């Protein structure tokens, strides 16, 4: 799977400027923004019609980007993450109040995924860390699997749409709770 370095740089600049973008992930298209820019997060939530209390996923191409969330974990817990990353598994990890409320919502954990999608991994590297990434669809609608679906949902309300095709997985990322081991949402 190839991607344009120019598109990566453009997407990273857009995120750094407070924009909201659409990008491919392992299975569906995602909406992304800078997790520490409250205005960008609020805009993303309005586009999705998603309540703040539900929380959002942080995605990076490098496990090290999640360092402060992983510091308090046991060796076995870190091994569980390494065994599934990079890939389409999102883990709910205790955040110990190290994340803004607009990311974790009403939860004591934060959703983290180390992506295996080449464009998204390169984007997070160019951006300099993890990004918010949530499925590109208004709440209650099917996640976009193609760029044209993203454009149908959001039109010109996004600041950048690009990055190639999804990774071809048939289902959105699996979500697992690190403390209980429970699968919260089955994946591909």
Automatic annotation (TrEMBL):
Its EC number is 2.7.7.87. It catalyses: L-threonine + hydrogencarbonate + ATP = L-threonylcarbamoyladenylate + diphosphate + H2O. The keyword Nucleotide-binding applies. It is found in: Cytoplasm. It holds the Pfam family Sua5_yciO_yrdC. It comes from the Bacteria. Belongs to the SUA5 family. TsaC subfamily. Required for the formation of a threonylcarbamoyl group on adenosine at position 37 (t(6)A37) in tRNAs that read codons beginning with adenine. Catalyzes the conversion of L-threonine, HCO(3)(-)/CO(2) and ATP to give threonylcarbamoyl-AMP (TC-AMP) as the acyladenylate intermediate, with the release of diphosphate. This is Threonylcarbamoyl-AMP synthase.
């Amino acid at each position: 799977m190839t991607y344009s370095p120019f598109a990566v740089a453009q997407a990273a600049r857009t995120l750094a400027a407070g924009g909201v973008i659409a990008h491919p992930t392992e299975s569906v298209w995602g909406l992304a923004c800078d997790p520490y820019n409250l205005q960008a997060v609020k805009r993303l939530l309005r586009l999705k019609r998603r309540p703040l209390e539900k929380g959002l996923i942080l995605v990076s191409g490098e496990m090290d980007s999640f360092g402060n969330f992983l510091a308090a974990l046991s060796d076995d817990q870190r091994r569980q993450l390494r065994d599934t990353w990079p890939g389409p598994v999102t883990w709910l990890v205790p955040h110990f109040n190290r994340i803004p409320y607009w990311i974790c919502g009403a939860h004591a954990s934060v959703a983290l995924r180390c992506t295996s999608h080449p464009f998204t991994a390169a984007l997070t590297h160019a951006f300099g860390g993890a990004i918010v990434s949530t499925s590109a669809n208004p709440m209650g609608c099917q996640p976009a699997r193609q760029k044209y679906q993203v454009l149908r949902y959001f039109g010109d309300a996004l600041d950048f749409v690009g990055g190639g095709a999804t990774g071809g997985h048939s289902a959105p990322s699996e979500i697992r709770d690190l403390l209980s081991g429970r699968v919260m949402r089955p994946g591909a």
